[in-house]
């Protein structure tokens, strides 16, 4: 049977398409919600071993960062246009319903060239507020240490935030929230993902696959002629 260039190219494209579409995973990268320049919020309730009935209210974050743990910060956005506007991102959770949300009442802004929030080089709006950034369901809550707690579970992410960091939804899964308490008041909070992040494939990658495949197909077809 004679193998034509068109047939070979057609079969090759479908064979290599899954490879081209599979984004690279980077185990060194994490997404972090952090309270760099402000703290606040409360956790009230029995505060028992399983945090039964506890409710977290308006726990504040001011910076969302894509971090390469081997080389440093990659990019950041800040919650609200300015610290004075008092519009940070707010985490609320309920251990009875096993749910949580992170909202940005004042929107999300580019943190600026130095990735430091609320400095003179604040960037433009990334997502207009008020907006929901994360909605978590089937969450598990427990005490991590004296005065602290830990949260794990699944969640739905805001697509605009995913798009800004060039991440696929399946990889942006928050499963680690550490909250330090003084009484019922939150003195520190960190919300990080612990999954391998997957980047959206660049269009140039698909182009290179096509060029390479075309060259191989031409050479093979020439030998068959």
Can you walk me through this structure?
The chain has helices at residues 5-21, 159-164, 203-224; strands spanning 25-26, 29-34, 42-44, 55-61, 63-68, 72-79, 89-94, 99-104, 108-110, 125-127, 131-143, 148-157, 174-182, 185-193, 197-198. It has one domain (24-198). The strands form two sheets. It has a 13-stranded antiparallel sheet. Strands 1-15 form a two-stranded antiparallel sheet. Strand 13 (174-182) and strand 14 (185-193) form a beta hairpin. The chain is globular, with a radius of gyration of 23 Å. The longest helix has 22 residues, at 203-224. The chain has 225 residues and is of the alpha+beta class.
**Helix coverage percent:** 10-25%
Determine the N-to-C terminus distance. Answer: 12 Å
Rg over C-alpha atoms, rounded to the nearest angstrom: 23 Å
Strand content: 35-45%
Identify the overall geometry.
Answer: globular
Strand tally, please? 15
Strand order of the largest sheet: 3-4-7-8-11-12-13-14-2-5-6-9-10
Number of domains: 1
Instruction: Give the topology string: H per helix, E per strand.
Output: HEEEEEEEEEEEEHEEEH
Sheet with the most strands?
A: 13 strands, antiparallel
Judged by helices, strands and strand pairing, the structural class is: alpha+beta
**Tally of contiguous helical segments:** 3
């Amino acid at each position: 049977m004679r193998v034509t260039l068109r047939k070979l190219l057609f079969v090759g494209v479908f064979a290599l398409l899954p490879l081209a579409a599979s984004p690279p995973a980077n185990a060194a990268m994490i997404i972090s919600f952090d309270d760099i320049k402000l703290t606040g919020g409360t956790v009230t309730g029995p505060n028992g071993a399983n945090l039964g009935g506890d409710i977290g209210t308006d726990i504040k974050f001011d910076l969302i960062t894509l971090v390469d743990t081997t080389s440093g910060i990659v990019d950041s956005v800040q919650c609200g246009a300015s610290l004075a506007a008092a519009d940070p991102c707010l985490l609320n959770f309920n251990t009875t319903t096993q749910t949580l949300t992170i909202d940005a009442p004042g929107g999300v802004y580019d943190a600026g060239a130095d990735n430091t929030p609320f400095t003179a080089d604040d960037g433009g709006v990334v997502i207009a507020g008020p907006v929901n950034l994360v909605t978590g369901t089937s969450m598990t809550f427990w005490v991590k240490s004296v005065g602290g707690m830990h949260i794990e579970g699944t969640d739905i992410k805001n697509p605009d935030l995913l798009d800004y960091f060039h991440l696929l939804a399946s990889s942006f899964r928050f499963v680690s929230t550490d909250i330090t308490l003084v009484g019922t008041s939150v003195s520190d909070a960190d919300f990080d993902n612990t999954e391998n992040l997957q980047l959206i494939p660049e269009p140039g990658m698909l182009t290179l696959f096509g060029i390479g495949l075309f060259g191989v197909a031409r050479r093979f077809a020439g030998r068959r002629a």
